[in-house]
Structures are given as C-alpha cells and as structure tokens.
Amino acid sequence: MPSSPLTRTRSHRRSGTLLALVPLAFLGVFFVYPVVSIVARGLFPDGHLDLSPIADVVTDPSLRHVLWFTVWQATVSTGLTLLVALPGAAVVSRYRFPGRAAVRALVTVPFVLPTVVVGAAFVALLGPGGPLGALGLDQTVWAILLAHVFFNYAVVLRTVGGLWAHLDPHQEEAARMLGATRWRAFREVTLPALRPAIAAAASIVFLFTFTSFGVILILGGPRFATLETEIYRQTAQLLRLDVAAALTIVQMVAVLALLFVTSRLEGRQLIGLRLRGANETARRPRTPRERVIVATNLAVMAVVLGGPILVLVERSLHTPNGYGVGFYRALGSLGDDSALFVSPLHAVGTSLRYAAVATVIAVIVGGCGAFALARHRSGSLDAALSLPLGVSAVTVGFGFLIALDEPPLDLRTSWILVPLAQALIAIPFVVRTMTPVLRSIDPRLRDAAATLGASPSRVWREVDLPIAARAGLVATGFAFAISLGEFGATLFIVRPDTPTLPVEIFRLLGRPGPQSFGTAMAASVLLMGITALAVLGIERFRVGTVGAF
Amino acid sequence: MLALEHLSVSYDGVVAVRDLELTAADGEIVSVLGPSGSGKSTMLRAIAGLAPEALGVVRWDGLDLTRVPPHRRGFGLMFQDHALFPHRDVLANVAFGLRMQRHSRATVDQRARVALGRVGLTGFEHRRVSELSGGEQQRVALARALAPSS
Question: Is the Cβ–Cβ distance between B129 and B90 less than 8 Å?
C-alpha cells in the first residue's frame, strides 16, 4: 500500500531533477554550444566534413613538435612534482612537530595563486637581476618545470598525505615484526595502500600541467609552445581560426581521455583500507635520523614554495633608487606607456567587479548542481558538471570567442562575457566543494528531525541548509579567488581597454624596462594579497578537511 | 495503545521484519530481544514512519497511521548512534522538537532546560555535541526524544 514517506522520497527526487536543470541549461548554452562551434569550425569549415585541418595539425612538423612538447613537459613536471612532494607528504602526515597545522595551510598557498603571479615570481627568481639569474635558467624549460612543481606541490601533499595520515601504522609495525626491513615494510605494506592516491594525484597534476597556459606563455617565451599557447598564438596573432579549432579538438580529445582515466583512479580509492583518525597515527620524530628527515623536508618546502614568493615581494620593493614603494605608487598611473590603455589600479577595479559577478553566477549554478548531486548520485550529472574543470580555460575562451559573437547570442560587446567565462571555470570547484559536505549529512539527522515533528521542507531548512551554508561560504571564497586570477579564458575575450589585473600583469611583463617590470611585480603582489584574503576567509569556515580541489 | 498488524519490512530483497503482530498498552513497557540484524531497529523505524517500504498497519489508539508522515506521528525515537545535530549545541538539540511544536521562545528554552536537567546535564547547554563522551551524547539524545512530550 502506498504510504506518504514514499511519495515524500519521490518529490525529493523530482526537486533534485529540477535543481539539476539550472546547471545543465547554463552548461548547455555557455559550454556545449561553444564547444560544438569549435568542432564545427574544425571539422566542417565549409559546411561539409573536411578532415584536412586535423590532418594538417597531425602532419605539420612544427605542430607535431608542439604536441610532443605538451606531453613531454607534463610528464616530466608530474614526475618531478611527485619526487619532491612525496617525502613532504610523508613528513606532514606521519610526524607531529610544532607548527604542523601552519605548514599544511601554507603549503597550499602556491596552488591558489593566479598563474600570472606564479609566472611573475619565477621571472623575478630566474630572470636577469634575480637571485638565481646567474644560473641561466631563464627562458629554458627548467623555468617551466620548476614553476609547475611550485604550483602542484600541494596537490600531491594534500591528496597523498590526506590518505597517508589515516593509514594504520600498526600494519607497517606488524610487517617489521615479521622480519621486513623498514624499506621492505614501506614497499610491501604502505606503498600498495597509497597507490590509488598517488595515481590520482599524478593524474591531476598531469592534467593541470597538460593544460597549463599562463605559466608557459610567460616563462616559455617564443621557444616553448604547448597546445594551449599555440591555440592562443594561432587565434590572436596569426588569425588562423581553423587551425586553432583543429588544435582545440585534439586538446579536448586528449583531456577527455585523461579525465576518464582520472575518474577511474578516483573510484578505486580507499577500498578495503582500515582507516584511523589522523591524530592517532602521527607521532613526534624520535631518532636523530627522523629529525633530519623532518627538518630536510621542511627546508625544501621553505625554499621551493616560499622562495619564489619572497623574491617576488623583494623585487616589487627594490626600485632603482633603493628600497621603497615607488612601484606601488606607479600602479595608479599609466606611466610613460600609453599602449597599456589603463592603469593597473583601474584593472584592479575591473577585476573585483568581474570576479564578484562571476562568483554570484558560479555559486548559484554550482550550488544547484551540488544539491541535485547530493539528492541522487548520478554519474553522468557528476561528469557533466566536472567537464569544464578538465577542458581547459583556453578552450572556454576560444569557444566564447567564436560562438558568442553572432546571433542568436551576440555578447561580443557585453562586459558580461568575461564573468560568464570565469564562472564557467569556477563552477566545477563550487560543485566539488559543496557536494561532499552535502552528501556527508547523515540521513539519520533528517530522520531524527522528522520524528521530532519537522515537516520535509522544515527538515531541509533546519538540517540541510545550515550545513550547506558553510560549504557555500567556502565555495564562494574559492570561486572568487579563481575568478580573480583567471587568465587563460579572459585573455581571449577581454576588451583591450578594460583589462583585468592578470591580463594587465601579463602586458606589463611583456614590456621592456625596469619600470614596467617593477610595476608588474607590485601588481602581482597586490593580486596575491587579494587572493590570499579570499582564501584565508575560506580556511576560517572550512568544516574539517572536507572539500576537494 | 500501540498495535502492529501484519507488519513486514524488506529492502533490497532482504526481509527484515516478517508479518509481525504486537500490541502495547498505555504505560506498558515492552522489551524486544534478538540477535544483531534480526530487525529490532527496523521495527522501530517502521513505527516511527521512517520505513517507507513497510507493509501492514501501525495503529495508535485504533487509528491507522500508515498515511501519517513521521513528523506528525508524535513518537519519540532514540537513534542507535544518537544522530545529534552537529551544527547545533546541546540545548539547541534538545529544544528542536519543542520548536517544531511552535511554542514561544521562552517556553522552548525553559522546557528544554528542564529536560536537560532530568538527564543530569545542567551546565552543558552550550557545549558542542561533538565534544561530549558517548554516554553524555546518549543522554542528550534521550532528553531530545522526551522533551516534546514532557
């Protein structure tokens, strides 16, 4: 016989479907439609199927070299990042030492920095006049690789360390009792347990470095081009949109394959492991050897992660007339360079406005998606909402450029184009921050509220909403930081006379002279500061360790 | 008087409760004993209206409750692992059911404090539930379940 709780479940599900319509409609118009336009441009340039642009990309020696270099630098960057960050993950998850919580928080800073700030920091570090300028690494592939390690260190530390902290140390001790050496016990017991997390971290880092844009555009100079920067060059400098479209198709296919592998690896995580609370597994370093390991890794973190940031700040204060705030004063003026159109301070205002609008859009659209996903697990909805995460910013920017500039949707002259693109990039992060929190709500809390007399809508208001509100605040901070630092998509569609701060920094870095360089440093520090404020706001509201990237 | 008639609950093809008959008079205390997984909790969930897949009839003073949703049944239920609201403090957990009954704020506060006192937790009003020991959590859960009908 039918009972009302059953119909309650049904209406619950129906409202979940309705909620899903908001993000699906948004993604349909602002993601699928541009992507379809790219595919049409690349495969049907004259209205009928023509594979020659794709064939050109695959056979042209210089484009083949771009393809090869993209894969090569992503592979080496991933390997290097694992090599540097895995020992750090071990130290942070296995040992208790003063300031451990602060170290865990600080290590994440580079990951949330805008890519132009990372690029600027490594120019400051390795370029002429920098403390490591004498090594001659500027304009070499090492600049790119080191910047990628700096940027992705936290991915490995958080993903692998997150699991490592919860592994039962007694298992390794049991192996030791059975006669295994320290190394053997690690290899036979701990490493197999960590393997899914390492694989997941590696695939995320590979994906990020494969689609890296700002860092390569700034540090690679004319010599090193990846798919991303080549798409930009073909579009903005050579105006060969068909080639750019063909390159984007190659890029999308590669990224989709990577995403597929990544989701497979994530799905395998944590199966059959006996997990412990993180506080039970960490202990103080006891032997001198352990103290050396901890100290060495902390020193590596300080140099690799702290060094570039400190150098950036130092050089922003190092004017030709000694230390001072001269470069910061110059932020308010055009200087002697009329090609900039606006002052950096004006660009700050533009950036804040755009980021605020983008955040509102991303939180509303992404929040609806998160609620829908929490109500019923749907693999396809999950995949749809994660798509813009993998499909690169450059794809989004290029797609907007060729799809939204003509009827039925002509937004070419509208300022909303930039916030829309930034929101699109922030949405997957909003979904990924909020969904785990919403899903972690124990269903018995809702049952308890119901037996205490709360109607279904009241249950939602009293249980789901207050818990979601916190996750929503975290997502808001993330979305704001991402929108503020967004560079790849913005560069394609921003109007030259209203640049955002990252675009302005990129222009300043491209101009000769110590004044432009110093102003770029000062603007980078400013952007870093605003981003840090948004992210520090996040840490205050973060519930436990919930929330992925 | 509570009466269960032909109560059966199965989920995912597993029968947890089969054709159960049970009556309990007002003031009567009934103990249900059985090994783990024998359906004790499932029976309680069905009485509270939390088992939508239940078949059969649950009656209260002769009234068929099948179509009455859990929040209108007025039953209290202690959850096995307490299911305290982590985002509310101790007093707010105990006051929840009273708030649902739309009492004035002063009444809610006063009756919640009385219920908390009855389980010996006066002074714990503004503690976080996650800070409590297992036994203290259990007493908060008891106060929360009893407060609306006290």
Answer: yes
pLDDT band for position A2 (cuts 50, 70, 90): very low
CA distance B69 to chain A (A): 6
- Positive or negative CA dihedral for A375, A380, A383, A387? negative
Tokens of A35: 């992507």
CB A366 within 8 A of CB A23: yes
**Do the chains contact at B67 and A452, CB–CB below 8 Å?**
no
Report the Cα–Cα distance between both ends of chain B, in Å, rounded. 18
Q: What is the mean pLDDT of residues B128-136?
A: 85
Q: Tell me, yes or no, whether A455 and A497 share the same domain.
A: yes
Nearest 5 degrees, angle CA A62-CA A63-CA A69? 90
Comparing A186 with B28, the larger pLDDT belongs to B28
What the block records as the tokens of A224 is 């090193």
Q: What pLDDT, in 10s, does the model give residues A386-423?
A: 766 667 888 888 888 888 877 677 777 788 889 999 99
Phi, then psi, of B21 in degrees rounded to 5? -120, 130
Phi, psi angle pair for B60, to nearest 5°: -125, 115
Structural domain of A423:
1-33+325-389+418-543
DSSP class of A340: G
According to DSSP, residue B120 is labeled T
Beta-bridge mates of residue B50: none
Considering only the beta carbons, identify the residue of B68, B71, B87 that sits closest to A453.
Answer: B71
- Mark A41-62 as b/e (b = at least 16 C-beta within 10 Å): bbbebeeeeeeebbeebeeeee
User: What is this model's ipTM?
Assistant: 0.77
Q: For position A527, what pLDDT does the model report?
A: 92
Interchain pair B71, A452: CB under 8 A: yes
Contact call for residues A285 and A97 (beta carbons, < 8 A): yes
Does the beta-carbon distance from B97 to A455 stay under 8 Å? no
Query: Quick check: is A311 in a domain?
Result: no
User: Rounded to whole angstroms, how far apart are CA atoms A520 and A508?
Assistant: 5
Secondary structure percentages of chain A, helix, strand, coil, to 5? 75, 0, 20
Chain B interface, mutation test: which of A3, A6, A459, most B Cβ atoms within 10 Å? A3
Q: Which residue from A1, A4, A452 is facing B69, i.e. has the nearest CB? A: A4
A293 in a domain, yes or no?
no
Longest Cα–Cα distance of chain A, Å, equals 86
Looking at this protein, which amino acid is placed at residue A297? N
A441 touches chain B (CB under 8 A): no
**Number of CB pairs < 8 Å for A and B?**
89
Same domain, A25 and A110: no
Report pLDDT for A278: 59
Of B66, B67, B100, the CB nearest to A453: B100
Looking at the domain assignment, is residue A78 inside a domain? yes
CA distance A494 to A350: 11
Minimal-distance CA residue of chain A relative to B48: A451
Residues A221 and A107 in one domain: yes
Spatial CA neighbour of A343 closest among A355, A334, A351, A352:
A334
**A59 touches B at CB < 8 Å:** no
